[in-house]
């Protein structure tokens, strides 16, 4: 298996992978594939990697810039992360997260935030921090990893692509 940057030719496989990976997740809005498409359209994907095994895309991760108190402080949001269901538990997600964090560090990232399972993301150093908030989400699931300097404080906002509703996602399509 190898981790590499996505290419234009990968987009249909990425869309299918993300849709399949989130289909049975209770916490999913079922808009994750449309969010990645919208991030791509908005030119807001800073790093996007795929895991490829024997010519098949089996994992994907996306990073996009976030604002803190409406200011660009060099922070990024991780998400979504998707691994094909039959390959989950094999370390594919772990490799994508580690390589993806390395990719945004090369871009000069000061830190990274995500909304996800503390048990999973804690192994990478992510933890909830009351100084950073994401509106309308439980604080324990919104986690941060500071790479340099002090942890900023304030309200975090993602690209508008993350605000897609199911209706909007189906209208926009790929």
Automatic annotation (TrEMBL):
Instruction: Give start and end of each N-acetyltransferase domain.
Output: 1-152
Put simply, this protein is called: Putative acetyltransferase
Q: What's the domain of life for this entry? A: Bacteria
- Keyword Transferase on entry: yes
Cite the entry's keywords alphabetically.
Transferase
Task: Report the Gene3D superfamilies cross-referenced here.
Answer: 3.40.630.30
Presence of keyword Transcription regulation? no
């Amino acid at each position: 298996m190898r981790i590499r940057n996505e290419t234009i030719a990968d987009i249909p496989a990425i869309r299918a992978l993300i849709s399949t990976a989130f289909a049975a997740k209770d916490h999913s809005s079922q808009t994750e594939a449309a969010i990645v498409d919208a991030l791509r359209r908005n030119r807001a994907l800073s790093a996007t990697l795929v895991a490829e095994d024997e010519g098949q895309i089996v994992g994907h991760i996306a990073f996009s810039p976030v604002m803190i108190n409406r200011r660009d402080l060099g922070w990024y949001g991780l998400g979504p992360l998707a691994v094909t269901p039959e390959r989950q538990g094999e370390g594919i997600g772990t490799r994508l997260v580690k390589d993806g964090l390395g990719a945004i560090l090369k871009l000069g990232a000061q830190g990274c935030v995500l909304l996800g399972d503390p048990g999973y993301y804690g192994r990478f150093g992510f933890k909830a921090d009351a100084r950073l908030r994401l509106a309308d989400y439980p604080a324990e699931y919104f986690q941060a990893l500071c790479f340099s300097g002090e942890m900023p404080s304030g309200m975090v906002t993602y690209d508008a692509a993350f605000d897609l509703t199911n209706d909007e996602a189906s209208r926009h399509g790929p």
